[in-house]
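Example A, followed by Example B.
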Amino acid sequence: MPPTIRIAALAAAASIALVPLAVPTASATTAATVTAATVTAAAATAKPNLRACYDGTCKLSLTRGVSFRVSSRFGITRLAITFTSATVRVKGTGPGVMSQAYLGEGSTGSVNHIGVRVVSLSSGKAVLRLTARR
């Protein structure tokens, strides 16, 4: 290796060694807290895992209406869930069949052997628990 390259590499190594280390301060701790809060908020608004509901058993926290596939063993192949501040509508469809239930907060019902319980309900969020009954 030519001497000029060694000198450049040595100069680069020296400049890297001279970079001061960051010392945690109150503002750095606050920034870390804000970042953690942002990550938590993002996780809370993340899309629900609808594939987990394919077997008819899952818990959903919804901020908007959804539609997803379910096992054909229930006699339907798709569930569509919409809600308002007072009512949750669960509609099951399949080839030549449609079944639906309208539920309020705290109530339970079923759509073709899939039990639905409305855990909580507001204008912006619905929390449901689905259970397979077949």
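Example B, a separate protein, is given below in the same form.
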Amino acid sequence: MSVKHNKAGGGNAEVKKELQEVKKETQEVKAAGESTAALLAMSFKAQIVQDRAAGTEAITDEMILQSAEVIDYPEYEDAHAYNTVGEIIKYNGRYYEIIAPHTSNAVSYPVETTFAYYRLVELTHTGTIDDPIPYPETAGIVVNVENGKYYSYKGKIYLAKADMPNCVYPPDTPSLWQWEEVNSGEG
């Protein structure tokens, strides 16, 4: 792009032509940028699917959530065939990963209780007393509890005293020795 200055004056037609050229070039640059962004988004989505198929889990939830700032993931659709494991969708402002092929319906939509089809994409917690893992407050959700990790539940912190795969007993279950309430001031 070049800008010419007409010292002789009277170059209104030339100025208009230059402005049209600048506008055209700007539109071309914008279109190229949008195309590049779309290609990068498609590439990243494909990388997630390949990563999940390979079982490497190299693409973290943090990376997916950061990508959501520039990638427009599709909204959940009812009566839709979700056949691609690793596909990311959006539902009620949260992001979910498809973990099993299925056709969505009134009973299999993305929430914590449909863990057979969807996995909530979220930042992970270390399970330390300072960063406990949130235990879901919705009854009946299965959680893989790990011995020695800390969990938060209804404003309190609990230490898991045993591995509890497929646990459905919340930390405040009476007489359950596998959970120990701890004072969050301890360290």
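On Example B: Residues 157 and 184 are 6 Å apart (CA to CA).
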